[in-house]
Amino acid sequence: MSLHPAVAAVRLGVRRHLADVEPGSTVVVACSGGADSLALLAATVFEGEKAGWQVVGATVDHGLQPGSAEHAAHVVAQMATLGAGETLSARVQVDGGGLGPEAAARRARYAVLEQVAEHVGAAVILLGHTRDDQAETVLLGLTRGSGGRSIAGMRRAFDRYRRPLLDVSRDDTVTACQVQGIEFWEDPHNHDRGFTRVRVRRTVLPLLEQELGPGVATTLARTADQLRDDMDFLDDLAEADWVELRGADGSLPVDPLVGRPGPVRRRVLRLAALAAGAPSAELFHDHVLAMDSLLTDWHGQKWIDLPGHLRCARRAGRLLLLRHPEAESR
Ligand SMILES: Nc1ncnc2c1ncn2[C@@H]1O[C@H](COP(=O)(O)OP(=O)(O)OP(=O)(O)O)[C@@H](O)[C@H]1O
């Protein structure tokens, strides 16, 4: 019997994005019990047998809904049935810490996945994000208007995480599960139109596909790939400049910075503010533009305020990043 194209697509994603993973390595697959991550686990087990990997399935119980422990136990059983060599379930305490519930759950999940990877000595942790997740991320980023990085989408790899299914559609993961007889879970949140992402998934993207032609999700995901490459290049340039120019006190010389192209210069300023202690979640593009105005539109302004009780001031040919009390005395 010939291999179903959807199953082939998922396996190809795993083969391609884990080509450098050595025989004998341990690979953790993070499984929510949804179609994406179960299709990913099945493909990783299949490819892992050929490549000589130990495959560990891990599921995280956020404890946010009634019955979540039973759900986690069910996912563990499924992961074992699909052939994971080892299965793990971890319950986490989701503590907001100023974050929204989704972001808090995500942070707790990543922390526990890290512990799991340490525990089993894993080379990589796999996440089941698909091309459709990527397209939604790009659209959401566009509407948020927070700059190139937010429309550059998710990375295929970061730290020890990999996303092997970013070229695979959600439909293919669902079909791959169906043809392999894998029962998957439908997260009730996926139907809750209170979430912007759900409205993008269920209304905006289908409308775009209907009005502009099929393939919009693919095009958005491809655009994100190209943009991410450019962003990474500019980030690398800026990082090298920052390392070269910064003084021991974190200050920056005005003249060489003014000569740098704007996209690099503003990245250097952002790096300097972060290094001085500005919280990244609160440091917005407007703050960086205000810092930039001390370089490109300076008419004697004393300082500009930054988050994290910081001030940026221009004195004696340098940009200084100061804590508030110091700002007064220097
Ligand atoms: N409860 C869970 N346990 C283990 N892995 C999970 C769990 N929930 C999600 N994942 C992993 O994360 C992937 C993405 O899931 P989902 O899109 O629901 O999360 P998200 O909050 O958007 O994640 P991210 O912050 O990584 O974008 C899943 O395919 C799976 O690999």
TrEMBL record:
Signal sequence region: none
Keyword ATP-binding carried by entry: yes
Organism: Nocardioides koreensis
Main subcellular location: cytoplasm
Regions annotated as coiled coil: none
UniProt remark on domains: The N-terminal region contains the highly conserved SGGXDS motif, predicted to be a P-loop motif involved in ATP binding.
Subcellular location: Cytoplasm
Gene of this entry: tilS
Protein's job: Ligates lysine onto the cytidine present at position 34 of the AUA codon-specific tRNA(Ile) that contains the anticodon CAU, in an ATP-dependent manner. Cytidine is converted to lysidine, thus changing the amino acid specificity of the tRNA from methionine to isoleucine.
EC number annotated for this UniProt entry: 6.3.4.19
PANTHER family in alphabetical order: TRNA(ILE)-LYSIDINE SYNTHASE-RELATED
Occurrences of domain tRNA(Ile)-lysidine synthase substrate-binding (ranges): 252-319
Lineage: Bacteria, Bacillati, Actinomycetota, Actinomycetes, Propionibacteriales
Domain of life of the native organism: Bacteria
Chain segments annotated as transmembrane: none
Keywords: ATP-binding, Cytoplasm, Ligase, Nucleotide-binding, tRNA processing
Protein name (record): tRNA(Ile)-lysidine synthase
Domain tRNA(Ile)-lysidine/2-thiocytidine synthase N-terminal stretches: 27-202
Binding residue positions for ATP: S32, G33, G34, A35, D36, S37
Assigned protein family: Belongs to the tRNA(Ile)-lysidine synthase family.
Catalytic activity: cytidine(34) in tRNA(Ile2) + L-lysine + ATP = lysidine(34) in tRNA(Ile2) + AMP + diphosphate + H(+)
